[in-house]
Queue: 2 jobs
Job 1
Amino acid sequence: MTRVLFIGNSYTSVNDLPGMLAAFAKHWVPSTPFTTEAIAPGGATLRSHLRQGIASQRIHEGGWQYVVLQEQSQLGGMHIDGVAFLGHPEALFFPAARQLAAQVTSVGARPLFYMTWSRREDLPTQRLLTDAYARIASELGAVLAPAGVAWERVRRERPELALYDEDGSHPAPAGTYLSACVLFSSIFRQPCPDVPVPFAPVPGDLARYLQRVGSDAALADPLPERVAPLPPLPVLPGLPPGDPLGPARLAGSWRGVLSLYPKAQGMSPALLSLSLETQGAEVFGRARLTMKSQSAEASVSLRVEADTVSFSIRDPSFLEASVGFRAVLKDGILQGVAFAEDPQGGQWYGSWTARPDAP
């Protein structure tokens, strides 16, 4: 009996990748009983799996031959002014991968890293994903299922094939089929047989092509480490020098915009409004943040230090996190930066401005 536990997110659960792999095994190697189980909530990072503990509990219950580890598609992710960037693997991916892989080996199973693919509009990013997964698999002596490499080959050879769902991120049925082929050959160390699975969601000729590409990617020589140098972190929003700032200069109503939430979803810029009053050296009031049909409103207490003011708002609807704000007053305008960390560990950076309401 071969038992495989998948730990990932929607890149694993969409089109039921674990179930498709199990069906392949049943059809192609019927003499080997094969079962799968998945813990794959949407958007999860390996770090969030560690924090929640469910994956670790299932690992320690034992009986697995392989535990498939799939990081969030942006390696944890970083958003700057509403634009998504690939996260630096040393920040979230590698530390969580090392901890989970240690748990896997402690129960006698093998960790298997399921390399994901770049977004449809950002094919060059695949080099960075490939490098990150190859390096951590090599470091830990883990199995590597280079699905992203197979996707890259198909995109170059047959760009008309619909590997992606409409969002340009998640897999269409053909994309899941290709990934399942990579996983099959990575686990069984043999090519996918030249026999399409009868119930496959892709036609026979296409299935044979995807099987061949998936097998080639999985059974190729080990991928070289450092396929591409790790990029420097993108430049984060910063504050300009500010004018002298005292509590009295903040009193009143302010309106402006915040670039933090995903531009791709039409959520940036968001509207920001502040209604502030002072009592001695204290500055307090209400803040409201509105993006699309969602909003967050809270009482705020501002902290003034030299030429900088700071406060925070809890966003329960989208990020499910507190958004921190800092700003300076420049030429009568609040010019600021914002920061949040979502429950999955993704980091969000933004910039904002606010002007006083006309009297």
Job 2
Amino acid sequence: MKILAFVGTNADFSYNRLLLRFMKKHFKQMADIEIYEVGKLPPFSVDTPLSEQTEVWKLKQKVKEADGLVFSTPEYDHGIPAVLKSAIEWLSYKTKVLSEKPAMIVGVAYGRQASARSQVQMRQILISPDCNTNLIPGNEVLIGNVRNTFAKDGRLVDQEAIDNLEKCFEHFIEYIQIFQDVDKGEHNMAVKQPTISDAYIQFPTGRLSLKEVQQIFSTIPFEIDLIDSTNHFAWFSDKPNREHVRNTASLGETVQECHPPMAVPAVMSIINSFREGKKDVVTRPLWMNGHRSLIQYYALRDINGHYLGTIEFTGSVEYILNLFENGAWSKDATTGASKNTNDSAPEEEEPAVDASTGASESSDDSDDEENPPVAADERPAEETDATTGASETGSVDAEDNTADASTGASETDD
């Protein structure tokens, strides 16, 4: 189980940080606790440029992946620190990453009342409509007189405080599991029994059942993601071992929410070029996870050409490239015989023909050495894409060697 724990202060020394470090070690058999420093975030402002929100985006991804959240708050002037409130603002403004996420509050302070007042305020914030967390009721962890409850090496040594912490954290783990069991049951029901299990879709080229459609998307050798016409992440194929790991918690998010801030301008350029009819496809070869992959973005349109969204196809091309490099295409496709059946000088080869269009890739029939054939990656920008007929002029592609693996957008300015 993965827990994300927030240090609710940016102070260099904090007993709340020591408490979370103690919990990380003490409960390591129960959960994997990652400690997050809210001081790394920029101060919340709706006018903060995207280029300065990379750390905010990274935090949102951590929250989405976590099974539960722990907020450790000190008490400043009977309330929570400003830096913690700023972090909550980032996680609740125009985003739903906190919604229905199991949460727990702990706190350490110097006085006898510990952080009681700040925890009351924190509870009000976390159950507000914009946050809407599943905050565990009761189970208060209020540790006061910290000079006597912590040893110099940072260990919590007050046994009464340890016993209460253990009881509350065990209840929190059980609380998380309740929601996980509900979600798992709903997921299994959807997999085993689609909403309309016996329905068929009649296509112009044949008929498929809903079960067949579902399994086709899980079986095809590439993954698919869909951004709908309103620029929201609408769907992804449930393919094992995806290059881009997707989370159902991201469904419904805007392009800005589900992409790294530095990548958003490039992604929106692709989408806008599709929406405006300037392009139909953008292709990006990239190194991903240690192997060569190909990402292709296609404009999704209805039969009348109206824009429906953007589809992203991603897949490893190592298998195909290895076949090519091992000479798989050196034999005649119909007979398996080598094109050179004897040791005599080979006849002059015919110009290579593109398989999808029948057009020669050579611009003329001459063998002029001063005008050699142009390599695929050196072709002029105005060359037409062979699969769609769409010109790649004005391509928004980033340089391949600096492209972000998830979007193709450059991260060099990060």
